[in-house]
Amino acid sequence: MINFVFMKIEKYISALLYRYQCVTVPGFGAFLTEIRPAQLNAVSHTFYPPKKVISFNANVKNNDGLLANHIAQQEKISYEAAVSAITETVAQWKRTLSGMDVLFLKNIGQIGLNAEGSLVFTPDTPVNYLTDAFGLSAVVSPAVRREELKAVVEELEEKAPIIFTPERKRSYSYLKYAAVFALFAGAGVIAYANYYSRKIDQETLAVHNAVQSKVEQRIQQATFFIENPLPAVSLPVKQDEAALQQEEAAVAIALPYHVVAGAFKSEANAEKAAAALIAKGYKAHRLEVNKAGLYPVVYGSFATYAEAQQNANEIHQNGEIDAWILVK
Questions:
Q1: What is the 3-state secondary structure (H, E, C) of 112-166?
Q2: Are 232 and 296 in contact (CB under 8 A)?
Q3: Residue 211, CB half-sphere, CA atoms under 13 Å: how many?
Q4: Which residues, 6+ apart, have CB-to-CB distance to 97 below 8 Å?
């Protein structure tokens, strides 16, 4: 069973990246995701949808229980067996890297060692892990070249000037007709330029409408689901404890970004860890039990991701390198 799990570790990591911002492989490192907004390539005139960008942090190695619990539920094995499978996989990965080979993880990226012996991660994600952009793809829109059209009109006007040549009186009527013809020719050139400009605008509008229609159609047709989600954990509570949990849930909604210090299977150990962080001066507290049956302890909770990231950087500078950000 362990060998069977070993072949699918990267599949489980990939599945968790859809739902979580951080997926930690105990003893190896953590894969992090960051949302990148839609972009336009001005050179190729291509619109790219928003996506999740994957990075890797080799300093975050503690077991938060997320990956092991997911494997245990998917493979219907014990939590200890899942941890053992992860440990064996990490050992195999390290043997591959020590031999100066590149470690390829399907739909995630590749990891190798640089000259200093540090892990270097190169993302290679044909899959977009941002569920809000599911079904969207890059769209190419042709550029509208208005300046070239203006140059063509000016060139046509220069080729049709009104020229008056002195002639004898008997040919004066011919010059009159020639002048009238030149006026009509100039008017025709201007009319053609206006018509061509309107045609370009109409084609441009049609292209944009087609692109918008295609995007809306794909959004309407897109349906995303994740097989076998983690089951919810139900805990009986007293009436006064239920009211306290509702109040904590309201605070969690207002402050959804948490800098996590660790997660504990024992509620008593989680309380001790929170008290220890408070004694060090942090605004630490314990979150409610998660779906994996663990009690997360956080350094603090914040309203924006930027505040949480700044706090995590300060904690890392203080030597607490295992701190990471949870969005909940």
A1: EECCCCCEEEEECCCCCCCHHHCCCCCEECCCCCHHHHHHHHHHHHHHCCCCCCC
A2: no
A3: 17
A4: 103, 111, 112, 113, 119
Q: How far apart are CA 308 and CA 246, in angstroms?
A: 23
pLDDT band (50, 70, 90) for residue 194: confident
Q: Is the pLDDT of residue 298 over 80?
A: yes
Total residues belonging to the chain: 328
CA distance 20 to 318: 26
Buried b or exposed e, range 20-47, using 16+ CB within 10 angstroms? bbbbbbbbbbbbbbeeeeeeeeeeeeeb
User: Among 201, 158, 160, which Cα is nearest to 183's?
Assistant: 160
Q: Which residues pair with 140 in a beta bridge?
A: 46
pLDDT of residue 197: 67
- To the nearest whole percent, how much of the chain has pLDDT over 90? 15
Summarised one tens digit per residue, pLDDT across range 73-108 is 988 999 999 999 999 999 999 998 888 888 888 888
pLDDT in tens, 234-260: 445 444 555 555 555 555 567 888 889
